[in-house]
Write a structure and sequence with these properties.
Largest sheet: 7 strands, parallel
Distance between the termini: 33 Å
Shape: globular
Order of helices and strands: EHEEHEHEHEEHEHEHEHEHEHHHE
Helix content: 25-40%
Structural class: alpha/beta
Radius of gyration: 21 Å
Number of helices: 12
Length: about 350
Amino acid sequence: MKNVYYYPNSKRTSSVVVNPYIEDLMFELSKNYRIINADYPSNSGMFQFFGFLRRTDYLVLNWIEDLPDKKFGRLQVLAFILQIYLLHAIGGKVVWILHNKLSHYPKHLEIKRRLQKLLARKSDYVITHCKEGLTYLESIEPRFRAKVLVVQHPVKDYPVIAEKNKEYDLLIWGSLLKYKGIDKFLEYLYKHQLDEKYRILVIGKTRNDDYAREIERFKNSNITVRNEFVDILKLRHFVALSKFTLFVYEDNSVLSSGALMDSIGFHSNIIGPQKGAFRDLAEVGVINAYEKFEDIISLLDANGMEDEQKTLEIILRFNKLNTWEKMGSVLHKFLNEHGSDKICHCHPLEK
Protein backbone atom coordinates (compact mmCIF):
# COMPACT_ATOMS: atom_id res chain seq x y z
CA MET A 1 0.00 0.00 0.00
CA LYS A 2 1.51 3.31 -1.08
CA ASN A 3 1.80 6.36 1.19
CA VAL A 4 -0.18 9.57 0.73
CA TYR A 5 0.53 12.87 2.44
CA TYR A 6 -2.78 14.74 2.41
CA TYR A 7 -3.03 18.52 2.57
CA PRO A 8 -4.78 20.07 4.33
CA ASN A 9 -5.70 17.61 7.04
CA SER A 10 -8.16 19.50 9.24
CA LYS A 11 -9.48 17.20 11.90
CA ARG A 12 -13.14 17.68 12.89
CA THR A 13 -13.70 18.40 16.57
CA SER A 14 -16.79 19.27 18.58
CA SER A 15 -16.08 22.98 18.11
CA VAL A 16 -14.65 23.11 14.58
CA VAL A 17 -16.46 22.21 11.36
CA VAL A 18 -14.15 21.79 8.39
CA ASN A 19 -14.85 21.59 4.69
CA PRO A 20 -16.47 18.13 4.34
CA TYR A 21 -14.71 17.60 0.99
CA ILE A 22 -11.42 17.28 2.88
CA GLU A 23 -12.76 14.47 5.09
CA ASP A 24 -14.73 12.69 2.36
CA LEU A 25 -11.82 12.47 -0.08
CA MET A 26 -9.38 11.43 2.66
CA PHE A 27 -11.75 8.62 3.66
CA GLU A 28 -11.97 7.32 0.08
CA LEU A 29 -8.20 7.54 -0.42
CA SER A 30 -7.65 5.62 2.82
CA LYS A 31 -9.29 2.55 1.25
CA ASN A 32 -6.38 2.15 -1.18
CA TYR A 33 -3.55 4.22 0.35
CA ARG A 34 -1.95 4.77 3.72
CA ILE A 35 -2.60 8.39 4.81
CA ILE A 36 0.62 8.93 6.72
CA ASN A 37 -0.48 12.24 8.29
CA ALA A 38 -4.04 11.12 9.11
CA ASP A 39 -3.50 11.73 12.83
CA TYR A 40 -1.61 14.99 12.36
CA PRO A 41 -3.75 18.05 11.49
CA SER A 42 -1.96 20.61 9.30
CA ASN A 43 -1.47 23.08 12.15
CA SER A 44 1.91 24.20 10.86
CA GLY A 45 0.92 24.14 7.20
CA MET A 46 3.40 22.77 4.67
CA PHE A 47 6.29 23.07 7.13
CA GLN A 48 4.98 19.83 8.64
CA PHE A 49 5.53 17.97 5.36
CA PHE A 50 9.31 17.97 5.84
CA GLY A 51 8.85 15.32 8.54
CA PHE A 52 6.93 13.02 6.17
CA LEU A 53 8.59 13.78 2.83
CA ARG A 54 10.92 10.75 2.63
CA ARG A 55 7.99 8.35 3.17
CA THR A 56 5.63 10.01 0.67
CA ASP A 57 4.64 8.38 -2.63
CA TYR A 58 1.85 10.87 -3.42
CA LEU A 59 1.48 14.43 -2.16
CA VAL A 60 -2.24 15.27 -2.53
CA LEU A 61 -3.01 19.01 -2.48
CA ASN A 62 -6.32 20.83 -1.96
CA TRP A 63 -6.68 24.63 -2.10
CA ILE A 64 -2.90 25.01 -2.06
CA GLU A 65 -3.31 28.39 -3.82
CA ASP A 66 -4.34 29.83 -0.43
CA LEU A 67 -0.96 28.96 1.09
CA PRO A 68 0.36 32.58 0.91
CA ASP A 69 -2.50 33.66 3.21
CA LYS A 70 -1.45 31.28 5.99
CA LYS A 71 0.80 32.12 8.94
CA PHE A 72 4.33 32.72 7.63
CA GLY A 73 2.75 32.33 4.18
CA ARG A 74 5.69 33.55 2.11
CA LEU A 75 8.08 31.24 3.94
CA GLN A 76 5.62 28.37 3.50
CA VAL A 77 5.53 29.01 -0.26
CA LEU A 78 9.33 28.88 -0.44
CA ALA A 79 9.37 25.69 1.64
CA PHE A 80 6.71 24.17 -0.58
CA ILE A 81 8.68 24.89 -3.77
CA LEU A 82 11.72 23.17 -2.27
CA GLN A 83 9.54 20.24 -1.19
CA ILE A 84 8.28 19.66 -4.74
CA TYR A 85 11.85 19.36 -6.05
CA LEU A 86 12.91 17.10 -3.17
CA LEU A 87 9.84 14.88 -3.60
CA HIS A 88 10.51 14.41 -7.31
CA ALA A 89 14.16 13.65 -6.58
CA ILE A 90 13.14 10.62 -4.48
CA GLY A 91 10.49 9.45 -6.96
CA GLY A 92 7.36 10.88 -5.28
CA LYS A 93 4.40 12.32 -7.23
CA VAL A 94 2.42 15.56 -6.86
CA VAL A 95 -1.38 15.31 -7.15
CA TRP A 96 -3.01 18.74 -7.45
CA ILE A 97 -6.78 19.02 -7.06
CA LEU A 98 -7.74 22.18 -8.93
CA HIS A 99 -10.86 23.58 -7.24
CA ASN A 100 -10.72 27.21 -8.41
CA LYS A 101 -9.06 29.21 -11.14
CA LEU A 102 -7.64 31.44 -8.44
CA SER A 103 -8.10 32.02 -4.73
CA HIS A 104 -11.32 33.80 -3.78
CA TYR A 105 -9.31 36.04 -1.48
CA PRO A 106 -7.56 39.07 -3.03
CA LYS A 107 -4.41 39.17 -0.88
CA HIS A 108 -1.10 38.03 -2.42
CA LEU A 109 -2.66 37.47 -5.84
CA GLU A 110 0.60 37.66 -7.78
CA ILE A 111 2.24 35.03 -5.55
CA LYS A 112 -0.84 32.84 -5.95
CA ARG A 113 -0.72 33.14 -9.74
CA ARG A 114 2.95 32.15 -9.79
CA LEU A 115 2.24 29.27 -7.42
CA GLN A 116 -0.47 27.91 -9.72
CA LYS A 117 1.80 28.26 -12.73
CA LEU A 118 4.48 26.27 -10.90
CA LEU A 119 1.94 23.58 -10.00
CA ALA A 120 0.80 23.40 -13.62
CA ARG A 121 4.41 22.71 -14.61
CA LYS A 122 5.45 20.43 -11.77
CA SER A 123 2.34 18.39 -10.87
CA ASP A 124 2.32 14.78 -12.02
CA TYR A 125 -1.47 14.51 -11.79
CA VAL A 126 -4.20 17.16 -11.84
CA ILE A 127 -7.82 16.47 -10.87
CA THR A 128 -10.47 19.03 -11.76
CA HIS A 129 -14.24 18.84 -11.31
CA CYS A 130 -15.24 20.58 -14.55
CA LYS A 131 -14.13 20.87 -18.15
CA GLU A 132 -13.30 24.55 -17.67
CA GLY A 133 -10.59 23.45 -15.23
CA LEU A 134 -8.75 21.79 -18.10
CA THR A 135 -9.12 24.93 -20.23
CA TYR A 136 -7.72 27.00 -17.38
CA LEU A 137 -4.78 24.64 -16.89
CA GLU A 138 -3.94 24.95 -20.60
CA SER A 139 -4.17 28.74 -20.38
CA ILE A 140 -1.66 29.10 -17.54
CA GLU A 141 0.77 26.47 -18.81
CA PRO A 142 0.18 25.20 -22.38
CA ARG A 143 3.02 22.68 -22.02
CA PHE A 144 1.80 21.14 -18.76
CA ARG A 145 3.27 17.68 -18.11
CA ALA A 146 0.60 16.26 -15.81
CA LYS A 147 -1.97 13.62 -16.53
CA VAL A 148 -5.40 15.25 -16.03
CA LEU A 149 -8.61 13.73 -14.71
CA VAL A 150 -11.83 15.66 -15.37
CA VAL A 151 -14.44 14.17 -13.04
CA GLN A 152 -17.58 15.61 -11.52
CA HIS A 153 -17.50 16.59 -7.86
CA PRO A 154 -19.16 13.69 -5.96
CA VAL A 155 -22.51 14.12 -4.26
CA LYS A 156 -24.15 12.71 -1.15
CA ASP A 157 -27.75 11.77 -1.80
CA TYR A 158 -30.35 12.48 0.90
CA PRO A 159 -33.92 11.17 1.19
CA VAL A 160 -36.40 13.26 -0.78
CA ILE A 161 -38.51 15.67 1.29
CA ALA A 162 -41.77 16.25 -0.57
CA GLU A 163 -43.41 19.65 -0.01
CA LYS A 164 -46.02 20.85 -2.51
CA ASN A 165 -46.72 24.16 -0.77
CA LYS A 166 -43.73 26.37 -1.45
CA GLU A 167 -42.97 29.25 0.92
CA TYR A 168 -40.14 30.71 -1.18
CA ASP A 169 -39.51 31.26 -4.85
CA LEU A 170 -35.75 31.43 -4.28
CA LEU A 171 -33.40 30.07 -1.65
CA ILE A 172 -29.86 31.47 -1.49
CA TRP A 173 -27.74 29.64 1.07
CA GLY A 174 -24.12 29.12 2.12
CA SER A 175 -21.44 31.35 3.56
CA LEU A 176 -22.33 34.96 2.74
CA LEU A 177 -19.13 36.02 1.02
CA LYS A 178 -18.64 39.01 -1.23
CA TYR A 179 -17.20 37.06 -4.16
CA LYS A 180 -20.55 35.28 -4.51
CA GLY A 181 -22.24 38.52 -5.58
CA ILE A 182 -25.52 38.02 -3.71
CA ASP A 183 -25.80 41.77 -3.19
CA LYS A 184 -25.54 42.31 -6.96
CA PHE A 185 -28.59 40.15 -7.62
CA LEU A 186 -30.65 41.75 -4.85
CA GLU A 187 -29.67 45.18 -6.14
CA TYR A 188 -30.85 44.11 -9.62
CA LEU A 189 -34.27 43.17 -8.19
CA TYR A 190 -34.69 46.60 -6.59
CA LYS A 191 -33.48 48.41 -9.69
CA HIS A 192 -36.13 46.68 -11.82
CA GLN A 193 -38.95 46.93 -9.27
CA LEU A 194 -38.94 43.16 -8.71
CA ASP A 195 -38.04 43.24 -5.02
CA GLU A 196 -41.62 42.50 -3.92
CA LYS A 197 -42.54 40.09 -6.70
CA TYR A 198 -40.67 37.02 -5.43
CA ARG A 199 -40.37 35.46 -1.98
CA ILE A 200 -36.67 35.04 -1.27
CA LEU A 201 -34.77 33.55 1.66
CA VAL A 202 -31.08 34.36 2.02
CA ILE A 203 -29.52 32.30 4.80
CA GLY A 204 -25.92 31.70 5.79
CA LYS A 205 -23.18 33.02 8.03
CA THR A 206 -20.73 35.81 7.35
CA ARG A 207 -17.94 37.01 9.59
CA ASN A 208 -17.74 40.27 7.69
CA ASP A 209 -20.02 42.71 9.52
CA ASP A 210 -19.80 45.26 6.70
CA TYR A 211 -20.98 42.72 4.13
CA ALA A 212 -23.72 41.52 6.50
CA ARG A 213 -25.06 45.09 6.66
CA GLU A 214 -24.75 45.38 2.89
CA ILE A 215 -26.95 42.29 2.39
CA GLU A 216 -29.40 43.16 5.16
CA ARG A 217 -30.25 46.54 3.64
CA PHE A 218 -32.18 44.66 0.94
CA LYS A 219 -34.61 43.08 3.44
CA ASN A 220 -38.31 43.78 2.96
CA SER A 221 -41.61 41.97 3.42
CA ASN A 222 -40.68 39.44 0.70
CA ILE A 223 -36.89 39.22 1.03
CA THR A 224 -35.70 37.56 4.24
CA VAL A 225 -32.02 37.70 5.22
CA ARG A 226 -30.77 35.52 8.07
CA ASN A 227 -27.10 35.83 9.01
CA GLU A 228 -26.78 32.49 10.77
CA PHE A 229 -25.37 29.00 10.40
CA VAL A 230 -27.98 26.45 9.32
CA ASP A 231 -27.59 22.71 9.85
CA ILE A 232 -28.27 20.14 7.15
CA LEU A 233 -31.67 19.04 8.43
CA LYS A 234 -33.04 22.59 8.49
CA LEU A 235 -31.42 23.32 5.16
CA ARG A 236 -33.10 20.33 3.53
CA HIS A 237 -36.46 21.61 4.73
CA PHE A 238 -35.74 25.08 3.35
CA VAL A 239 -34.85 23.47 0.02
CA ALA A 240 -38.15 21.55 0.03
CA LEU A 241 -40.02 24.78 0.74
CA SER A 242 -38.34 26.61 -2.16
CA LYS A 243 -39.08 26.48 -5.88
CA PHE A 244 -35.44 27.12 -6.76
CA THR A 245 -32.03 27.28 -5.11
CA LEU A 246 -29.95 30.09 -6.60
CA PHE A 247 -26.17 30.43 -6.85
CA VAL A 248 -24.99 33.80 -8.11
CA TYR A 249 -21.17 33.44 -7.90
CA GLU A 250 -20.24 36.58 -9.81
CA ASP A 251 -16.52 35.94 -9.28
CA ASN A 252 -14.93 34.31 -12.34
CA SER A 253 -12.47 32.25 -10.28
CA VAL A 254 -15.09 29.60 -9.44
CA LEU A 255 -14.71 26.17 -11.04
CA SER A 256 -16.60 23.85 -8.68
CA SER A 257 -18.72 24.26 -5.57
CA GLY A 258 -19.38 22.03 -2.59
CA ALA A 259 -22.58 23.94 -1.81
CA LEU A 260 -23.79 23.24 -5.35
CA MET A 261 -23.23 19.51 -4.91
CA ASP A 262 -24.91 19.54 -1.49
CA SER A 263 -27.93 21.22 -3.08
CA ILE A 264 -28.06 18.51 -5.75
CA GLY A 265 -27.94 15.94 -2.93
CA PHE A 266 -30.94 17.73 -1.39
CA HIS A 267 -32.75 17.41 -4.79
CA SER A 268 -32.92 21.17 -5.33
CA ASN A 269 -34.17 22.73 -8.53
CA ILE A 270 -31.02 24.80 -9.07
CA ILE A 271 -30.19 27.96 -10.99
CA GLY A 272 -26.50 28.78 -11.36
CA PRO A 273 -24.13 30.84 -13.51
CA GLN A 274 -22.97 29.66 -16.93
CA LYS A 275 -19.46 28.80 -15.77
CA GLY A 276 -17.38 25.93 -14.41
CA ALA A 277 -19.21 22.93 -13.01
CA PHE A 278 -22.51 24.80 -13.28
CA ARG A 279 -22.16 24.83 -17.07
CA ASP A 280 -21.27 21.12 -17.22
CA LEU A 281 -24.26 20.17 -15.07
CA ALA A 282 -26.63 22.34 -17.09
CA GLU A 283 -25.50 20.56 -20.27
CA VAL A 284 -26.77 17.23 -18.91
CA GLY A 285 -29.97 18.70 -17.43
CA VAL A 286 -29.11 18.47 -13.72
CA ILE A 287 -29.42 22.25 -13.15
CA ASN A 288 -30.48 25.43 -14.97
CA ALA A 289 -27.77 27.91 -16.01
CA TYR A 290 -28.09 31.63 -16.65
CA GLU A 291 -26.00 34.15 -18.56
CA LYS A 292 -27.61 37.27 -17.11
CA PHE A 293 -30.01 38.06 -14.28
CA GLU A 294 -32.89 38.40 -16.75
CA ASP A 295 -32.58 34.64 -17.37
CA ILE A 296 -33.23 33.98 -13.67
CA ILE A 297 -36.46 35.97 -13.85
CA SER A 298 -37.55 34.02 -16.94
CA LEU A 299 -36.96 30.72 -15.13
CA LEU A 300 -38.89 31.92 -12.09
CA ASP A 301 -41.85 32.95 -14.20
CA ALA A 302 -41.89 29.82 -16.38
CA ASN A 303 -41.47 27.07 -13.79
CA GLY A 304 -44.04 24.25 -13.81
CA MET A 305 -44.48 21.07 -11.75
CA GLU A 306 -43.86 18.90 -14.82
CA ASP A 307 -40.39 20.42 -15.28
CA GLU A 308 -39.69 19.99 -11.57
CA GLN A 309 -40.50 16.26 -11.69
CA LYS A 310 -38.32 15.75 -14.78
CA THR A 311 -35.42 17.54 -13.08
CA LEU A 312 -35.84 15.38 -9.96
CA GLU A 313 -35.62 12.20 -12.03
CA ILE A 314 -32.37 13.40 -13.65
CA ILE A 315 -30.93 14.40 -10.27
CA LEU A 316 -31.73 11.04 -8.68
CA ARG A 317 -29.99 9.23 -11.54
CA PHE A 318 -27.01 11.58 -11.39
CA ASN A 319 -26.66 11.12 -7.63
CA LYS A 320 -26.73 7.34 -7.97
CA LEU A 321 -23.90 7.44 -10.54
CA ASN A 322 -21.80 10.12 -8.85
CA THR A 323 -21.02 8.89 -5.34
CA TRP A 324 -17.91 9.47 -3.23
CA GLU A 325 -17.21 5.74 -3.45
CA LYS A 326 -17.18 6.03 -7.26
CA MET A 327 -14.83 9.02 -6.98
CA GLY A 328 -12.40 6.99 -4.87
CA SER A 329 -12.45 4.14 -7.38
CA VAL A 330 -11.95 6.43 -10.39
CA LEU A 331 -9.11 8.29 -8.67
CA HIS A 332 -7.32 5.07 -7.67
CA LYS A 333 -7.55 3.77 -11.24
CA PHE A 334 -6.32 7.10 -12.61
CA LEU A 335 -3.26 7.21 -10.33
CA ASN A 336 -2.30 3.63 -11.17
CA GLU A 337 -2.94 3.50 -14.92
CA HIS A 338 0.11 3.49 -17.14
CA GLY A 339 -1.67 4.19 -20.42
CA SER A 340 -0.69 6.89 -22.89
CA ASP A 341 -3.85 9.00 -22.53
CA LYS A 342 -2.90 12.32 -20.99
CA ILE A 343 -6.46 13.50 -20.34
CA CYS A 344 -9.23 11.34 -18.88
CA HIS A 345 -12.88 12.46 -18.78
CA CYS A 346 -15.33 10.79 -16.40
CA HIS A 347 -18.73 12.53 -16.37
CA PRO A 348 -21.91 10.72 -15.25
CA LEU A 349 -24.92 11.10 -17.60
CA GLU A 350 -22.62 12.13 -20.44
CA LYS A 351 -21.80 9.94 -23.41
